[in-house]
Amino acid sequence: MSESTYEYLDKINSPADLKKLSIDELNILCSEIRDKIIKTVAQNGGHLSPNLGTVELTVAMHYVYDTPTDKIVWDVGHQSYTHKIITGRKDKLSTIRTKGGLSGFPKRSESEYDAFNVGHSSTSISAAYGIARARAVKGEKGRTIAVIGDGALTGGLAFEGLNNAGRSPKNFTVILNDNKMSISRNVGSIARYLTHIRIRPGYIRTKKVVEKILLHTPVIGNPIRKVMLHSKSKLRVSVYRNTIFEDLGFVYYGPVDGHDIGNLIDALNASKNVNQGVLIHVMTKKGKGYQYAEDEPTAFHGIGKFDINTGEPLSSKDGFSAYFGNAMCSMAEKDSRICAITAAMKLGTGLATFAHKYKERFFDVGIAEEHAVTFAAGMATEGMIPVFAVYSSFLQRSYDQIIHDVAAQDVHVVLAIDRSGIVGEDGETHQGVFDTAMLNSVPGAVVYSPCYFSELEHELHKAIYKYDGITAVRYPRGAEPYKPDDYVSGEEYTVYGSGKDAVVVTYGRIFGNACKAKEALKKNNKDITIIKLERIKPISREAVSIAAEFKKVYFFEEGIKCGGIGESFCCMLNELGFKGNFSLTAIDNKFVPQSTVAEALSDLGLDCDGIVNKLTWN
User: Fold this and answer.
1) What is the rounded distance in angstroms from the CA atom of residue 505 to the CA atom of residue 521?
2) By mean pLDDT, which of 200-204, 285-289, 501-505 is the weakest?
3) Which tens digit of pLDDT belongs to each residue from 395-410?
4) Region(s) of the chain under CATH 3.40.50.970
5) Which of 61, 130, 220, 515 has its CA 20 to 30 A from that of 459?
């Protein structure tokens, strides 16, 4: 199907255009939207499975609700491509996740239809309820709808929102998109509970039948109904069989087939007439409509460019995550105390093999980073060595637990921080640029930042066995950077070269760019020394002393400047009485927008050219 010859999609420029179509025509439109999404993600990379699973749901919402007067708040937002297509952005979809193009997530600055910026899980109910209450205070009309997945429902914030929003006034709706998945397959009691609801979809019908009988029973029927509604008796439980959502104060509808657009429209319309908060339980299939994604929804959750005909990725999957997973298996084979913890990211963090080989020592806690850290602390008090593998941007959620439950108790928990530094196309919400400043403020924390695979394994070993408190190893997404043939890694730091013109100090993968810059400068008869910090907290005083011997010190950091490693290095130089010139290039008081990693590093002055341009002399 050619992108320029869609029978119905070409006519859709706003949600108002949907309302002109019949149910049969909406079904054809959904097929066209799927085709466009598959082609776009194959070309740009992005989130495929979650978007394919919510096509009918999104179309039905915009068909029934009066957006943007009615406000839709997406959870995570990685399922919002259909929403973008319908709300006037279909012609720009080819730019999604590219520099200056559409965001892969909802963004308020992009469209009036995007009610709230998102990118992390479990926020939709709290945000939507805040919007709803603010609108009520202002006397504004319109519904507010939170769309949350069953995976996101494993996050504690979702339940804080449900608890606060329960028994809310009308015009507030929660749509539970239940596909039995988060990124990996869901785990835990919430997943089991939702399964319990799914296997008894007839109970809503039972309630309606009982109520109808009672309402038509003269004299005593309605009083009995009222008693049952407000009773905690076994009779009420046996007849009504309430869900947790109803106990929290929501009217529950479902489960509804999330790919039957007619039923979806009926359920959404019915919910509009309820005079209190509503939760609609929708069943969808992740990856719907593209067989490879249906068969492997986790692999196609977030994917790079791929071949549509074969489903095969066009770039290598090997990288730091896979190497970390192999290193964990190797150490766990020799030490039964080593345990691995993930927050619904088994595949993303490279722990699939570990989970298979050491099932009793692998723990997927769901999308619950705060719980993961405190859970790890509890394990550590019993002599285990828990390693929590987590993306840098998600670790931010557990700052309090790191300080209070790990560092303050001085228990040995290891953080394996994946996707540190710039991650690229996912943009502001996913850039791993805050973990260094965050951990730099934690008393007693020890942090390593390897540049190469061999260093990752070596430094992970040190993090596990050399220290007793909280330790961390942070590493970037993807493959190794450039590595000079004569490079040999040190322990706490490495001195590379013997140039006298200036010294460059850096850590992590930026070292590769610094080496390229060194070679480029040498062609212009300028020779520099590079100090590569292996352990970035605490910084080696020897490394600082070596840097202090130079008149010009340049620090390059792929992290936030305020509170970062460069500022600490500068303070230590001053303590030694350094009188030379110090320059710090880091991410200064801003969020890093979406682009490729190479584009972002160039814009930040952290690529080879940026380093060369910075190192100028009079």
Assistant:
1) 16
2) 200-204
3) 999 999 999 999 999 9
4) 9-198+251-295, 320-474
5) 515
For every residue of 489-554, DSSP letters joined together read: --SSEEEE---SSEEEEEETTHHHHHHHHHHHHHTTT--EEEEEESEEESPPHHHHHHHTTSSEEE
397 is catalytic: yes
Distance CA 92, CA 159 (A): 36
Of 197, 299, 317, 307, nearest in space to 253 by CA:
197
Topology (CATH level 3) of domain 493-614: Rossmann fold (3.40.50)
**Percent of the chain residues past pLDDT 90, beyond the cut:** 80
90, 397, 537, 561: the active-site residue: 397
In the Cβ-directed half-sphere of 67, how many Cα atoms lie within 13 Å? 28
Among 34, 84, 107, 286, the active-site one is 286
Which of 32, 56, 369, 455 is the catalytic position?
369
CA neighbours closer than 13 Å in the CB half-sphere of residue 292: 15
Name the CATH topology of 320-474.
Answer: Rossmann fold (3.40.50)
| Burial (CB count within 10 angstroms: exposed 0-12, middle 13-18, buried 19+), residue 287 | buried
Tell me the pLDDT band of 565, cut-offs 50, 70 and 90. very high
Long-range pairs of 356-363 with CB within 8 A, sequence gap ≥ 24: 357/329, 357/332, 358/329, 358/332, 361/332, 361/336, 363/339
Q: Which amino acid is at 135?
A: R
Percentages (nearest 5) of helix, strand, coil residues in the chain? 45, 15, 40
pLDDT at 4: 58
Numbered ranges of CATH 3.40.50.920 in the chain: 493-614
Residue 155 has pLDDT above 80, yes or no: yes
Using the Cα atoms of residue 424, residue 426, residue 431 and residue 432 in order, give the sign of their dihedral.
negative
CA angle 544, 545, 548 (to 5 degrees): 85
CATH of 9-198+251-295, one of 3.30.450.40, 3.40.50.11540, 3.40.109.10, 3.40.50.970: 3.40.50.970
Work out the number of other CB atoms within 10 angstroms of the CB of residue 215: 10
Q: In this structure, what are the phi and psi dihedrals at residue 418, rounded to the nearest 5 degrees?
A: -85, 160
Q: What pLDDT does 238 receive? A: 47
Catalytic residue flag (residue 369): yes
Q: H helices of 336-477, where?
A: 352-357, 369-381, 392-395, 399-401, 435-440, 453-465
Is the link from the previous residue into 593 a cis peptide, with omega within 30 of 0? Answer: no
